[in-house]
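hey so i finally got around to running the thing on that chain from the lab meeting. sorry it took forever, my laptop kept dying and i had to restart like 3 times. anyway pasting the input first so we r on the same page abt which one it is
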Amino acid sequence: MEMRNVLGAAVVAVVAASGPAAAADERVWGAETLESRVLTVYADGFAQVEETRSGDLPKGTLRLRIGDVASGIVPESAILRGDRLAVKDMSIRPSLVDPHALLVDALGKTVKAVRTDPRTGEDKTENAILLVIDPKPILRIGDRIEVNYPGRIVLPATPDTPMPGAAQLDYGLESAGAGKRALTLQYLVPGMRWQADYAAVYDESKGQIALNGWIGISNGTDDSFRDVQLRVVSGNVSRVADSGDVTAFRAKAAMADEAMRPQAISGYRLYPVSKSVSIDAGERKQVAFLDRAAIPVKRSYRIVDPVGVFRSAPGFWPRRGAFLRLAFDNAVAGGVTPPMPAGVMRVMAYRPTEADLFLGEDHIDHTPEGAQVVAQLGRVVDVAYEASRLEYRDISRSASEQRFTVTLFNDGERPAEVEVAQTFPGQWTIFEEDATHTRRDAQTAVWKAVVEPRQRTTITFWVRISTGS
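ok and heres what got predicted. didnt touch it at all, straight out
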């Protein structure tokens, strides 16, 4: 009996000498220290997490373990900040619950030794100290040492116990004061992205649309984010291809509670989306961010390159539908209008006595306040065109003169405003026409016409084209 006590004391002494630092110099901050979490998602496929943690810290040198950190964290991106606090070193513990790692953490600590009585099937539980784990666990139970314990070891769950879907950061710190402290932890997590989606209902009789905007968040990580403040960033942030060397974009502007409106930061655009939202691992969530009604909208039709200008082009182009376009200004009368992030706009036609009809969708670019939003929705039937080349004559080996006519049809019941855009190669001049064109750019001529209901209109023009030097 005395020999066993000496052996137990020796083993405990070895464990104490080789184990972690004294408890007074360690702090473990688990999920209970998390006061708030801000999730900023980028369209490039990653997110920035900013956490506010609060707990007691001693003065002097210590180790702080911060648990419940996203398992996909990019360790090199982690930034820990706090008043009167200097960070000396940092390491990360993996998110997997490793039985061996759990036993290592429990060395020298009190555990539960559970043995089942083979006669009654009842469990008998005793307090034990875990002395050794390799090659087999050795326990001190009361005044005896158990080398081949015929039962199982139950470990107490503590805030520093690794949990599935969470990592743990281990910091070496120098604290200039003792007491309760609030710290800020920032880090990057790959596997998340966002996109904007818009749903519009077009009322043709009133010339208006009602518009709803949604931010879609795709969480492709193994982490769930509960009750986070959600923001998204418009713009593409430069990152190094090696995930171990990341340039992080840090949004330093605070979001004002009184105005959930975007902020410009170094040319990027930060959109506050929600003050509290939960996004599970693998989930795609839509969060509403825009709701406007009775927006004046202009309907028009567009025809692009109705004719071919090379000799090999055919002489006749049969009837084809024009593109339907809806345009409106990103402006709110008497108020501040937030920019609209780039995304997909889907438009339904309002029908008061029947089900609405899907008209089409288009990708819109980032649209600042006061700028025009244009959605080109698809080809229609009632507004159409056909075209012919009436004459072709060569002037030289690299130049020609050609005469075209484009016929515009409107079989609908309302006037149709039609834009015809034709591109030309090389140097070109329209020297004769029966409708005035404008130059949109160096290659494009544009004609505009209003075609009355059940009517047709023609545009005829001569163009001289030179493709030589």
